[in-house]
Amino acid sequence: xxxSRLEAFSDGVLAIIITIMVLGLRVPEGNDLRSLWxxxxxxxxxxxxxxxxxxxxxxxxxxxxxxxxxxxxxxxWANLHLLFWLSLFPFSTAWMDRSNFSRTxxxxxxxxxxxxxxxxxxxxxxxxxxxxxxAPLARALGRDLKGKISPxxxxxGIVAASFSRQSLDAAIWxxxxxxxxxxxxxxxxxxRIERMLTEEHRSES
Length: 205
Hints:
globular; about 80% helix; about 0% strand
């Protein structure tokens, strides 16, 4: 089965997720920057963080399927599993914001991030099971250090938030720092798959 339909469906779902998140931004009642911050300051920051995460997943999803040769029923279900966790981003983001970063919503946001990371790992493994041992995707991923480190940061963030006693105390800031750190790690350009795509094109020409 070709990957084009799966990619098109996934792109559409991710576009809807971003649209839902931006519709959650509150319009300021005033006309100055203070009004913007008072009405939507925290909401904008959580939106930016979640938007970056959706962008990271979209980017990596796109690159991964550029090196995927075959799509099976298992890959389709693994992809839907990933989209399930990503589709919860608008909910977990909005709850965290409206609670003023209380303990449980911040933990739920971390669980959502952890679930998406695990789902992406399962998707990778499901694809690789259909490929030969020396498939381009397997060589491009290598040890996948980022993918292994990310869940550790999410778990640390969830545990840190569990110690919170009030909104935006030190434990919450530690949790948020863990979530932001993973986003920063993945924002650093990773050329593994791009290099592999270049090599594949050169070998075909």
